[in-house]
Amino acid sequence: MLRRFLEAWCEENGVDIAGEEARQVAAGLIAWYQSDLKDQAGLRAVFETNIPLSIELNTLLGRLASL
């Protein structure tokens, strides 16, 4: 699920999944996963950009938080 979210985020934002920005997001996803899966605000902090999350990414975010 984390990989799927990262791939969707990269596609939506035109970021290469092998790039530094994707690595930073992946690291944030893993840190969030290891700490508190129910903390949606913490996960949203991983994506501190000026680009709003799409409906699809918000749906995936909800699914991640409900694991």
Automatic annotation (TrEMBL):
Q: Which domain of life does the protein's organism represent?
A: Bacteria
Which protein are we looking at?
Uncharacterized protein
Please report the organism this UniProt entry assigns to the protein: Pararhizobium antarcticum
